[in-house]
Amino acid sequence: MLVSAQDSAATETLLSVRVNGKQISEAEPVLRDGPSRWFVTASVFRSARLRLPKALPVRVSGLEYYPLDAISGIQIRLDDGAQMLDIIAPASAFLNTALVGVDRKSVVATRPEPGLFLNHDFQMTSGTGRQQLSGIVEGGLFSGLGVFTTQYAGRDLTNRVAPLRLSTQFFRDFPEHMSTLTIGDTISEGSPWGKRIYYGGIRWASKFSTQPNFIPTALPSLSGQVAQPSTVDIYVDNVRRLSQPVDPGPFAIRDIPVISGQGEIRMVVTDVMGRQQVISESYIRSNQLLRKSVTEFAYEAGSPRLQYGVKSNAYSSVFGAATYRRGITNKLTIEGGGEVQPDSETAGIGAVYGLRGLGLVSAGVAG
Q1: CATH code, 13-90
Q2: Do the Cβ atoms of 98 and 231 come closer than 8 Å?
Q3: Domain definitions of the chain by residue range
Q4: Which residues pair with 257 in a beta bridge?
Q5: Rounded Cα–Cα distance for residues 78 and 14 (Å)
Q6: β-strands 276-285, 261-271 pairing
Q7: Residue 325 has what pLDDT?
Q8: Which of 56, 70, 218, 303 reaches 20 to 30 Å from 189, CA-CA?
Q9: Which long-range contacts (CB under 8 A, 24 or more apart) does 162-167 make?
Q10: Is the distance from CB of 322 to CB of 336 less than 8 angstroms?
């Protein structure tokens, strides 16, 4: 529903418009109804990032004008000499500004061309009339299907002692799922109730590094509001990490880059008059705390290696293991898992909670 010009005694004029010290337009059609009631078009609200009021607009000459006095706490002054409408609006009247400290955009992996590589490290020692050559050789093939590698070590190549196979594996990453498939020799995920083992078998697990911009752990965020254009400086442990201009209104800065551990973030907001407000907050970041809704997993099956570095192909009995972790909130992560071997079974559940300023609190039960 619109209010027509016939229903209003308002007059239309062209004025420059300034909002909270920022020039919005040099010549903008505005509507005046009496000595102190003003109307502007929706484009002024958009340009100034003001929230569009729910009041009914007035239509004049095909344009829709919204009343400025529908904004609570607004101040309006007409500068006749400059032909300028000067508007001062409270910070709550503006739309939120969202700033990001760390870019999380996903990247698209380039399909690799087929190729091969060879790494080697040899050492010759001599003493007491005896020379000995030792070394490690790694060879690999890669293509769009994955990467195949194998490693051999020779302790005494001078006397033709047979080299030992250290590891052989094929793996393929799936960046779109942030996961990886491994077949061959690898290391198990491990858990608070089970140790990591070196084994030969198959493994399907999370691999966040396939998306370099993805951060699985929770990063701190800060928010505030300003009435004038300002600059926000973020200090992490007294080192400036971020500086961003912000427009009037509420703002939030998420994913502030911090290192692992505990510390303090200080946000300094400086307006155009040089006035400052400072907000300080402690933070905690740990690889044990996943961000909300982020899941980490590993499903494994195979045979543990025996006498690694001594024998090439010694394996034990078959085992299976699974671990699962999920961020319930940015402060709470739950985990569970189990391991099955021919002579034993182990399972457990646990949780980790982050307390800012204090540290991590963890609890679990296994059997």
Answers
A1: 3.10.20.410
A2: no
A3: 13-90, 115-213+291-366, 218-285
A4: none
A5: 12
A6: antiparallel
A7: 95
A8: 218
A9: 163/137, 164/309, 164/310, 164/311, 164/312, 165/312, 165/313, 166/136, 166/308, 166/309
A10: no
Residue 39 is encoded by which pair of tokens? 């109307």
- Rounded to 10 degrees, the C-alpha dihedral 64/70/74/80 comes to 40
Q: Do residues 162 and 184 make contact, with C-beta atoms less than 8 angstroms apart?
A: no
3 state SS of 310: coil
Q: CA 58 to CA 55: how far, in whole Å?
A: 10
The C-alpha atoms of residue 215 and residue 294 are separated, in whole angstroms, by 10
User: What does the CA dihedral 236, 238, 240, 241 come to, rounded to 10 degrees?
Assistant: -20
Are the C-beta atoms of residues 27 and 13 closer than 8 Å to each other?
no
Tokens of 193: 């109730």
Mean pLDDT of 21-30: 88
Cα Rg of the chain, angstroms = 33
The answer to pTM > 0.90 is no
* CATH ID of 218-285, from 2.60.40.3110, 3.40.50.720, 2.60.120.1440, 3.90.550.10: 2.60.40.3110
Burial of 260 from C-beta contacts in 10 A (0-12 / 13-18 / 19+): exposed
pLDDT in tens, 231-273: 999 999 989 988 989 888 899 988 888 888 888 999 999 988 8
